[in-house]
């Protein structure tokens, strides 16, 4: 696995340097939020401490809350500490225990006045930490758990009680989605940088090959016919290899070797360039035409079949031209040759009588893609296909 691949796989998760830089700032905000909620909880419980059923337990709970807030600040400052399973379980356990014992510590009458649990809003910090460190879904489930525990302690239809579930779930989920969006944007940026670097390296190699191998092949093609039959054969081979090499050098598709979610959509222009040869000319748009992988595979198979028919039936000296255009949400692919041609009746009859090349490989594939194909042919004037295929 290359260093580029490892970097992009890490970026897709949460352990790349860039992701950690973002998460470090997010956890810093989370720690400030947790400190603020801890101060708020201490202030609220200081006002109702004398009326609590168990003042000593309330003071102990505040000490635990304050101490855990300090520990959380230390743990969140270290990347390796945030991903520890034991830490996440302990963080959730502290929040659930403080919420679950609120009615007993405060007393039913005091607790029923406003249904504010001992940690008040501090208990949302554990679900938030999971939403940031793991995923929005996990954070929402954790918020649901804390909210349900609070409702189960004192089952009631009082809005101030059950609304806690809504707040905890959506706050944790919203923050988690925001973090995932930031990390996804960072991953896309890293992928773009990696693709740019790969293309730049390819351009550098292209210049080297152009100045060396391609010029040598061109020289062999030009001087070969003067060396007799063997020279003509060498010139023909040099021309074919030069066409293939130029098509390879023109391919701007970059496979970064990472997961499907990071890989670029195939470029139809680069895909068609691979069919260029001494007898096949490719003309395409200057811009890249990115399509779904399935569409790209099917279009490549269609062009392969049409060019195979040209080689088989158009005659040994036949040339073929492939033209790619885009019109709105459709790509228009035209393939024509200057071979011996055929009548429209012959082509129609070939499809109707089960000729697999025309019926399945060409017409069938175009139909499955939601497009339509038009074929025109005349004896002595070759065959021309026009394919219109919808793309997103």
Describe this protein's structure.
- With 392 residues, the protein is an alpha+beta fold.
- 66% of the residues lie in helices and 9% in strands.
- It contains 15 helices and five strands.
- A five-stranded mixed β-sheet has the order 1-2-3-5-4.
- Helix 5 packs parallel to helix 9 and helix 8 packs parallel to helix 10.
- The longest helix is centred in the middle third of the chain and has 65 residues.
- 30% of the residues are buried.
- The N terminus is likely disordered.
Radius of gyration: 34 Å
Structural class: alpha+beta
Approximate helicity band:
55-70%
β-strand number: 5
Strand proportion, as a percent range, falls in 5-15%
- Distance N to C terminus: 33 Å
Detail the poorly predicted runs. Answer: 1-12, 258-263
Strand order of the largest sheet: 1-2-3-5-4
Q: Main beta sheet, described? A: 5 strands, mixed
Number of alpha- plus pi-helical segments: 15
What is the element layout, followed by pairings?
Elements: H1 3-12, H2 17-48, H3 55-76, H4 79-82, H5 85-100, H6 102-106, H7 108-114, H8 125-133, H9 136-153, H10 159-223, H11 229-250, H12 268-273, E1 280-283, H13 293-313, E2 320-327, E3 330-337, H14 344-352, H15 356-368, E4 372-377, E5 383-390
Parallel strand pairs: 1-2
Antiparallel strand pairs: 2-3, 3-5, 4-5
Helix pairs in contact: 1-10, 2-3, 2-8, 2-10, 3-5, 5-8, 5-9, 8-9, 8-10, 9-10, 10-11, 13-15, 14-15
